[in-house]
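Problem 12. The chain below contains 82 residues. Write out its predicted structure in token notation.
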Amino acid sequence: MDVHRVVLSWRSWALLDLTGKEQAHTLLRQSVRYAVRTEQSLVEKKRKPPEIRTLLPKLLDQHKLVGKPLGSAPPTTAGLST
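Solution.
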């Protein structure tokens, strides 16, 4: 899964109060444009979509994560290795 599809749109929302609607809108437009361009490339080159597109929804359903409330604990670095 391409991280830019998620991160750019999330940042546009997160920066809304800081930058204002116009700049946040620009970031969101860039995210949408990137996603559309990537999709068009798959179609034009007749490439098979990445396996994550079928695997991720399957895992979300299998573990009943859709609709589950998000956690509220602050992130930690405890599980990270250096």
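Discussion. The chain has a mean pLDDT of 84. Students who got a different answer should revisit the alignment rule from Section 12.3.
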